[in-house]
């Protein structure tokens, strides 16, 4: 369900570092990293100055992050409290220095930031709301610093394209200098994303045109007849069933119950994790398939 | 498992409503869906006990006066809509309990028990009726899958509202469970056909909603058609046996058969109509059996069988390739 407004997931006091040829130059301003969940469920990574005046100024940086876009890590080979928002494409990287009092907590904060920017709560009717968020973005544009930024819609389109590029480029060369553990983190974030997307309903997977050919196998009716209501156990009944609105409706309800957690895969004796229809199917495959495992 | 007091949403389908009425203990009544406000069609469905107009609810100003329910106690059964998911059943009850037909024990008891109650208590009595709730809920998928209503409320999913139109004791009423009392639309003379008096009111609603693209349905609660046709057929057969020439009783088309040949073709027509009713009820029943059956064991065992036969992988591949989708529901 949607929250009524923006939800702040995490705030970390941090200043900016700017790339200057081959060095990073510190910006002395006091700042704040903020990760928010927008009304449409998308995650935004923001940085703004912690000004005493105009507390609700527009953030200077406001980036929508899809899972798999980026991670927040300590800058490798650096001894100071410097961190980076590391993207697949290096020219998008952003750099920060921690301004929180306790350095011991930097690592945990960084992990949490990574986790937050890689989370994703799909809201319902997101596509319809793309227009609304674009409008909201315009309305929210306060002119305190005159900072410009791409509209939410443009950003979303750009981000999606970059994610697609990142997914295509998964075969990164091994032995990349700082890269391996980062890549592993990116990959696991992308895996997380795949599991979090709702996926199709069982009524779409078990479409009539897919089922009817399968149902021509007479052993299927033989074995499954006991699970059909009495009086509806003929081959014709079976074929009528899979094309019926009542069956599709039950498949939809079942798929919703799986996804919402009302029904658990363990209810079916499946060991697997997950709550999507795909997870359900994979769970069944793993448990009952006779194929030799490689 | 849902709370045992919960009412689930059911489909607004004439086959569902017809069986619902029967399972509440009322014989000889069926529900037909009307796709247009066709007066000729309406007249052909007589006797019509009441009309139900259902539409996606929205705020409307309506300054028409409502009758004080106290004044009508005892001759109009008016209950307030207390349980949102029960609104279809309540609209049907509004007609059954005012139609002057034989009710069966469950509904007779309800009517007697609540006869002195104000509308809100009547509504609560309906909501608390375990028998009625059980029959109502039996038309949604059985436990353990009970839809989480909040999650199912997608953008397009509607909150439907039901209004009943019914003639009671010489006047035409609009019964709306969200209002404080019945609305009297007009008086009816003995010669008046109430359907023709109700039509303009319904028509103006249709036009109002059509402009805002609000979807609506119209259903008629009528006497069981097969009964009606069978009675007519029996009369014709009787009189043709006795050699009389007999006028067809109250059929939809004008003009009477005055000759044996006409009587024959009329009988043929009635028999065909009876056959159509049998087919329709059979279809309705098939659908209701499906609605009431829990297909989870079937689905699970089917997928298991496919996995054992090595035929599940293509479905997995297809599911993995599908774009995320919203789950569309057919409930209204």
Describe the structure in your own words:
The complex is a heterodimer of chains A (294) and B (332). With 294 residues, chain A is an alpha+beta fold. Chain A contains ten helices and eight strands. Chain A is elongated, with a radius of gyration of 25 Å. Chain B is an alpha+beta fold and 332 residues long. A six-stranded antiparallel sheet of chain B has the order 1-6-2-3-4-5, with helices on both faces. In chain B, a hairpin with a 6-residue loop joins strand 4 and strand 5. In chain B, helix 1 packs across helix 11 and helix 10 runs antiparallel to helix 11. The C terminus of chain B is likely disordered. At the A-B interface, helix 5, helix 7, helix 9 and helix 10 of A face helix 8, helix 11, helix 12 and helix 13 of B.
Question: In what order do the strands lie side by side in the largest sheet of chain B?
Answer: 1-6-2-3-4-5
Counting helices, strands and paired strands, the structural category of chain A is alpha+beta
Bulk shape of chain A: elongated
Greatest interface: A-B, 57 and 53 residues
Unreliable spans of chain A are 122-180
| Radius of gyration from the alpha-carbon trace of chain A, in angstroms | 25 Å
Blueprint (SSEs and pairs):
The complex is a heterodimer of chains A (294) and B (332).
Chain A: E1 7-20, E2 23-26, E3 31-37, E4 43-49, E5 61-65, E6 70-74, E7 82-87, E8 94-98, H1 106-117, H2 126-140, H3 152-168, H4 179-196, H5 202-205, H6 208-214, H7 218-224, H8 235-243, H9 245-260, H10 277-288
Antiparallel strand pairs in A: 1-2, 1-3, 1-8, 3-4, 4-5, 6-7, 7-8
Chain B: H1 14-23, E1 29-34, H2 39-44, E2 48-56, H3 69-72, H4 87-96, H5 104-113, H6 119-128, H7 130-137, H8 149-152, E3 160-168, E4 171-176, E5 183-187, H9 194-211, E6 216-223, H10 225-241, H11 260-292, H12 296-308, H13 313-321
Antiparallel strand pairs in B: 1-6, 2-3, 2-6, 3-4, 4-5
Helix pairs in contact in B: 1-11, 10-11
